[in-house]
Q: What sequence folds into this?
């Protein structure tokens, strides 16, 4: 039986060139980047070169990139670090109801520590209104955190417009760009972004490494203590092989970003076309005009998520019900709940398919046929 991986939004396979780069560094470079001798300087060059490449990818400055263990830590650092560092200016934070749990649970923690959080609603496509952001802004608002693109339905938020709105406000603007980075053009200066989170394993890099972009001048209080690594923001010896792999993954994905984007659009269209040809009942969740090309969240009336995923898996297709951080529990999606309501059918019959490195047109055609076969099995 052929197997098809359709859960790239959860994680992606490491690119062979990234594996090669990391293996070379692990074999050859073992000095501590903080040491001043030759071995340390060799390791420091690896870290500095990666920081340069990553900074360039979002039009940031070299010293505005902080290496972390991934998107979750970057989100935590951005929210907790800026909240506690700026509480003298106010304790109000704005976010949305569809954020990743790395943001939502961090906001809950901040609420328990005396901060006030406004959770903005979204429309049926999963998009937040710029007008709602404007109405929620207060003189004591210190942080606005709105994801660049949603990890469950792929909806892209109006980041540029929100950045413009906040240009003359004291609030810092943070965006979780974990799903968007490497597919959408990101210019932190042009978009007026103060803080931005990214994870390497979504772009065919290694797990356990990411970065936080922190605009120069942003007040951010560190919450790990030790050495003076990462501009005193994150203590601890840098993971040099992972950083080297991250750099290689960024170079690869940025070299043909538009070409990859266009191909994923074709994959998405071919997949939906394949479902239509099978004459089954389905509805695409999310925005038609503002969506990531590699994520397709689909509601299949008359089916149930758990049985659907099990049947897909038995047929060789690996998909999910939403965020990888909650898919194991199969709890109703907070994203779909915010879009359609707590009692909506979409919460219980929606599947997320996502494509990436190695996915072919033939693959999506076959995945569509298998999906239709499962739908017919479950609804007849």
A:
């Amino acid at each position: 039986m052929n197997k098809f991986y359709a859960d790239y939004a959860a994680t992606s396979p490491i690119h062979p060139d990234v594996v090669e780069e990391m293996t070379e560094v692990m074999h050859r470079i073992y000095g501590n980047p903080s040491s001043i001798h030759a071995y340390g300087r060799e390791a420091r060059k690896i870290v500095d070169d990666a920081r340069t490449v990553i900074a360039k990818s979002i039009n940031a400055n070299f010293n505005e990139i902080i290496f972390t263990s991934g998107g979750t830590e970057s989100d935590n650092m951005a929210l907790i670090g800026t909240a506690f560092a700026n509480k003298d200016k106010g304790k109000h934070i704005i976010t949305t109801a569809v954020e990743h749990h790395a943001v939502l649970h961090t906001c809950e923690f901040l609420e328990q520590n005396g901060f006030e959080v406004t959770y903005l609603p979204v429309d049926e496509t999963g998009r937040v209104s710029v007008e709602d952001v404007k109405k929620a802004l207060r003189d004591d608002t210190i942080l606005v955190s709105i994801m660049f693109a949603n990890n469950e339905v792929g909806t892209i938020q109006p980041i540029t417009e929100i950045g413009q709105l906040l240009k003359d406000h004291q609030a810092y603007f943070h965006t979780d760009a974990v799903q968007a980075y490497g597919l959408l053009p990101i210019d932190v200066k042009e978009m007026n972004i103060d803080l931005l989170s990214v994870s390497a394993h979504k772009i065919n890099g290694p797990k356990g490494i990411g970065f936080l972009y922190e605009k120069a001048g942003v007040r951010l209080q560190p919450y790990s203590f030790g050495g003076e690594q990462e501009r005193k923001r994150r203590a601890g010896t840098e993971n040099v092989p992972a950083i080297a792999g991250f750099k290689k993954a960024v170079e690869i994905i940025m070299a043909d970003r538009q070409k990859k984007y266009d191909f994923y659009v074709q994959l998405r269209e071919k997949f939906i076309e394949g479902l239509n040809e099978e004459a089954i009942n389905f509805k695409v969740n999310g925005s038609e005009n503002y969506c990531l090309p590699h994520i397709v969240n689909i509601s299949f009336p008359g089916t149930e998520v758990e049985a659907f995923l099990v049947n897909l898996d038995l047929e060789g297709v690996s998909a999910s019900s939403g965020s990888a951080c909650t898919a194991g529990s199969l709890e109703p999606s907070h994203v779909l709940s915010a879009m359609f309501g707590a009692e909506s059918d979409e919460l219980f019959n929606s599947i997320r398919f996502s494509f990436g490195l190695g996915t072919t047109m033939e693959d999506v055609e076959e995945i569509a046929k298998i999906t239709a076969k499962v739908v017919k099995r479950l609804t007849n």
Notes: The chain has a mean pLDDT of 95. The two ends are 24 Å apart (CA to CA). The longest strand covers residues 92-96. Residues 257-277 form the longest helix (21 residues).
